[in-house]
Specification:
Length: 337
C-alpha cells in the first residue's frame, strides 16, 4: 500500500509538470511537413505470445505507434473511411490519416503516407484553446465525418474525402442538456447508423438510476435513451455496422496506472427511443494483457467478417502508449444474437 501511495504521488506530481508544459503548446506552432509514425509489433498476451483467440475474436495485428513529432498522440476517435484510409482525431485538435497496407487476409502490415492537419472551425480556422478536445469520430453514409468534442460540447460535420482534412466544420444541432455535461465527460461515443441517425452516448452524464444518458439525433431532432456500461467502465467510443448494430467501446482506469477495456454489441432492434441499452460483451482487455487507455474503435466489413480496430489515447504522457489492435469477428464465428 505504501509503495502504491508513493507511486500515486509521483504520478500526480509528474502530471502537474507535464500539463504545465503542455499548456504552452500551440497547434499553429509546428510545420505540417515530414510527419512520420512507426508501427512496432507487440505481443498482446506476453504469457502466451502465440495466442490469437480472444473471446471469439481473432487477433490479426497489434502495434505500438511511435513518433518523434510532438503533434502525435492523444488519439481519441478512429474511423476506417469508405476510401479505405485510416482516419483519427486527437484531443489536441488534429486530423490524422494514412493509407493502409494489408495482407490478402486483411491483416494490417503498415500505415503509410501519413497526413496531419488541424481540425478547422466553421470559419475555416484551426481550432484552439477549449475547441481542440476532439473525442469521437464517425463517418456518415454520405461520406462526411462527424467529430464530437468535449469542454465546448458539440458535434461538427466535415466534408467527405478528399476534402476532409481541409474542410470547414458545419455544426450539428444538439439537445441543450448536452451543454451541461462536465467539461471532461461529454460525447466521447458517437456512431452513425445506416439511415444517418446519430447515436451519441455521454461519458459521465448519468440518469438517476446510474445509466448514461444517450440520444438519437437526426435532422435536428433528438430523442433520449440510456446506456448501461460495465461496472466502473465509461463509454469511450462506438461504431455502427452495416446492419444497424452498434459496437460500444468502454474503458476503465484504476489508480495509479491500470487500464481495462471492453467491447460490447448492441443489436439494431434494441436501439429505440426511451429504452435502456445494455450491450453484450464481445471482448475484454485487462491485465495481464497489454492494455492502455483505449478510446477509439473502427470497423471495416469484409467477406471474411468484420475487422475491428482499437486505438488507445496516450494523453501525451510518456508513461502511456498509443496501441493499435486489429481483430476479426469471423462470419462463421461467435454468434452476436
Amino acid at each position: 500500500m505504501k509503495i502504491n501511495g508513493c507511486i500515486a504521488i509521483l504520478v500526480s506530481v509528474f502530471l502537474v509538470v507535464w500539463l504545465f508544459a503542455c499548456g504552452k503548446y500551440s497547434t499553429s506552432s509546428l510545420a505540417a511537413s515530414d510527419f512520420r509514425i512507426e508501427l512496432h509489433p507487440i505481443e498482446l498476451d506476453r504469457n502466451d505470445p502465440k495466442r490469437i483467440d480472444f473471446d471469439g475474436l481473432r487477433l490479426l495485428s497489434a502495434y505500438h505507434l511511435r513518433s518523434n513529432d510532438r503533434r502525435f498522440g492523444g488519439l481519441s476517435g478512429l474511423a476506417i473511411g469508405t476510401d479505405g484510409k485510416f482516419y483519427a482525431v486527437s484531443d489536441r485538435g488534429f486530423w490524422l490519416s494514412a493509407r493502409m497496407h494489408l495482407q490478402t487476409d486483411g491483416r494490417l502490415l503498415n500505415l503509410a503516407d501519413w497526413q496531419i492537419a488541424p481540425l478547422l472551425t466553421p470559419a475555416k480556422r484551426p481550432v484552439n484553446k477549449a475547441l481542440t478536445d476532439a473525442e469521437g469520430l464517425a463517418q456518415a453514409p454520405d461520406g462526411t465525418f462527424l467529430v464530437s468534442f468535449e469542454h465546448a460540447h458539440r458535434i461538427w460535420r466535415y466534408p467527405a474525402p478528399p476534402e476532409t482534412l481541409s474542410g470547414a466544420a458545419v455544426p450539428v444541432p444538439l439537445p441543450g442538456e448536452i451543454s451541461k455535461a462536465p467539461k471532461n465527460g461529454g460525447l466521447e461515443a458517437i456512431s452513425v447508423r445506416p439511415d444517418g441517425q446519430i447515436l451519441a452516448i455521454a461519458e459521465r452524464v448519468e440518469n438517476d438510476e446510474g445509466s448514461l444518458k444517450a440520444w438519437l439525433i437526426k435532422h435536428g431532432r433528438s430523442v433520449r435513451l440510456s446506456y448501461v456500461p460495465g461496472d466502473g467502465f465509461m463509454a469511450s467510443d462506438s461504431v455502427a455496422l452495416r446492419n444497424g448494430d452498434v459496437l460500444v467501446l468502454e474503458r476503465r482506469h484504476d489508480l495509479p496506472i491500470r487500464f481495462s477495456a471492453r467491447l460490447t454489441l448492441i443489436k439494431a432492434r434494441q436501439i429505440r427511443p426511451g429504452v435502456t441499452l445494455t450491450g453484450k460483451e464481445m471482448l475484454r482487455l485487462e491485465p495481464p494483457l497489454q492494455t492502455d487507455n483505449f478510446e477509439g474503435v473502427a470497423v471495416t466489413e469484409t467477406a471474411a467478417g468484420t475487422m475491428i480496430f482499437l486505438v488507445s489515447d496516450d494523453n501525451y504522457f510518456m508513461f502511456q502508449r498509443t496501441l493499435l489492435l486489429q481483430f476479426l469477428l469471423p462470419r462463421s464465428g461467435k454468434s452476436t444474437d
